[in-house]
Amino acid sequence: MLQKQPFPSIDAIPRETHDEASRQRYVSFLRKFIMSDLSSKMKDLYFEDISKTIADDEVNKQSQTVKIRRAMEKTLFYKVWSSLRFNAQEMTWFSVQNQVERSLSDLVKISKEASRVKTDTASLNLNPSLEIPKYVSKLDIHQMPGCFHTEYVSDDVAVGAVYAHGTKVFGGAMKKSSNPGKGGVADTISNYLKMKYPNFKPKRILDIGCTIGSNLLPYRNVFPDAELYGVDVAAPVLRYAHARAVSMNIPVHFSQQNAEKMNFNDGFFDLIVSSFFFHEIPTKSSRLIVKEISRLLSFKGMTVHMELPSVNEVDPYYNFYIDWDAYHNNEPHYASFRKQDPIELLVNAGFKEKNAYILHLPDRGGVTDHDFRKVVDGNGSSPKHGNYASYYFFGAQK
Ligand SMILES: C[S@@+](CC[C@H](N)C(=O)[O-])C[C@H]1O[C@@H](n2cnc3c(N)ncnc32)[C@H](O)[C@@H]1O
């Protein structure tokens, strides 16, 4: 136990009213309708009609993607779809803000109590003088009010709570749970690593851009003896993450640092991971961060990152479709991240090309254990990327 008494769950503090709960359900299903039903109709419209008006550019996928965007932007279907999607994104965060505001003083109180929990294996180290990079501070990434770093009251955790509850609304109706208790990025990749490399027993695991720790804490189930570390530039999400980990009795060292330059010694970690992180970072910073990862990894250490597939790995229509966020969702680095070759990014940071890889894995919650094992063993394939069915990873061993 990290503390003598069980610690209250910070996630459970903001309570939604009856009307808020129905609004959240509505937004979840609206998103599902847009991202599944309407998106599939829009794809039909493209392939049955619009694609005939565009000359094929087999060689240059990027110029083909631009042509598709220009043609689709003229259609009424795209305009309606895009504006619905934009509004559903805003509504996601708005649908949880009131309950977070009502309970803010209790949230802050719990997180302050949790911040006193300090052991050899669990701590929260904030650095108020850390400069927040402009790519975080200058815009509300994916339209989340206040982004990850804004503090409205002292010791604030509000944006952490909005992220925790908003992401449930965001993916709630779309995530498949046909394999109960399983699924999500961390559960999927950590189980893959354990199955694929049975002798790999990381002593220390680092998650960069950990936000509230959602894709760090599950490593505890698979590598129970490993020390867990989470780094983020934003204090409110780290306070929330620490309180959450304490209440779940999972020891983690959280620290406020810029992943471009961290204060750990060379070779300190055996496994360094991230999820939904690199596409929010300018390419120049991505290069610095991957170099830093290479410095921090032990000999034979592993690094693996869940991301969006790069431009050259998917067809031009899908490129147009997933780059929507770069133009309409305050994620300006999304498209430039995808233009990079992830293997080249790793090799330029010092990893050997033969040790670098791209990986497609089904979400473990959406397939049977048997089918997941088949994919790990190379005898099965992953469902098509998108809507949480499968994940794309790039990684390397040192
Ligand atoms: C989309 S979120 C990551 C989500 C999280 N990994 C998860 O799976 O729930 C991106 C996070 O990266 C953090 N971040 C952005 N730039 C960073 C940097 N240079 N160093 C450390 N953290 C950074 C942001 O504050 C934010 O919390």
CATH topology: the name is: Rossmann fold
Q: What is the CATH top level name?
A: Alpha Beta
- CATH superfamily heading: Vaccinia Virus protein VP39
Oligomerization status of the protein chains: single chain
Residue windows where pLDDT falls under 50 for at least 5 positions? none
Instruction: Let me know the average pLDDT.
Output: 94
Q: How are strands sequenced across the largest beta sheet? A: 1-4-3-2-5-6-8-7
Proper CATH architecture? 3-Layer(aba) Sandwich
- Structure summary, number of beta strands: 8
Shape verdict: globular
Count of DSSP helices? 15
- Fraction of residues in helices? 40-55%
Quote the distance from N terminus to C terminus: 34 Å
Small molecules bound? S-adenosylmethionine
Question: What can be said about the biggest beta sheet?
Answer: 8 strands, mixed
Name the beta content range: 5-15%
Order of helices and strands: HHHHEHHHEHEHEEHEHHHHEHE
* Radius of gyration, in angstroms, nearest whole number: 21 Å
User: How many domains make up the coordinates?
Assistant: 1
The SS-based structural class is alpha/beta
